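Dissemination and training. As part of the outreach component of the grant, students in the summer workshop were shown how a complex can be specified as a set of sequence lines and then modelled as a single object. The example used during the hands-on session is reproduced here so that future cohorts can follow it. Participants entered these lines:
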Amino acid sequence: LAKTTQPISMDSYEGQEVNITCSHNNIATNDYITWYQQFPSQGPRFIIQGYKTKVTNEVASLFIPADRKSSTLSLPRVSLSDTAVYYCLVGGGPRTGGGNKLTFGTGTQLKVEL
Amino acid sequence: DARVTQTPRHKVTEMGQEVTMRCQPILGHNTVFWYRQTMMQGLELLAYFRNRAPLDDSGMPKDRFSAEMPDATLATLKIQPSEPRDSAVYFCASGKPGLGSYEQYFGPGTRLTVT
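and obtained this result:
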């Protein structure tokens, strides 16, 4: 069962790039890494998912080193509206069998200021 | 814009009472997840279903919690009897299989307070 840890909080300013790292030393071969964003009183919202190397979409990039024991979510040019809690989730999927547990990280509170 | 709906949004009950939470997944999503979120434990997976069949409920206290999916448009999470330590926000999420793991869409949650 992958145990995932994240920094409790991070501060940044508008327009800067923010990198949030998740540590998952016990990641299994079939596990994927997914990142979610959560605003107060809302459910988490999907940001990005990857297995290895680098994945990029319109809102973020995900970097995963070869050993896959950590991952980094990169948010380019953050704004005030990016202030939220960010979670990594480690686990498998339908093509990798139903036995992979889904484990959320501890969450990182990102605060963006002017 | 398809969304997961959960009812009720808030529930206050007394210890020992039965609590039922309902979830309507996004049409066409074949996987439904139940999570619990607390300040102390964070987000915990309780159970999940694929094509209405339970795949994993190892995160759920079996003596008092039960999860079912009577049809493709309804998932339920029941607590009987409820205890103060069950106070939390309960999220339902529905997912579609991606190339790897699930892309999950979360509902707004049910905030449960057990006194």
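Chain A has a mean pLDDT of 91. Students were then asked to discuss how this feature might be tested experimentally.
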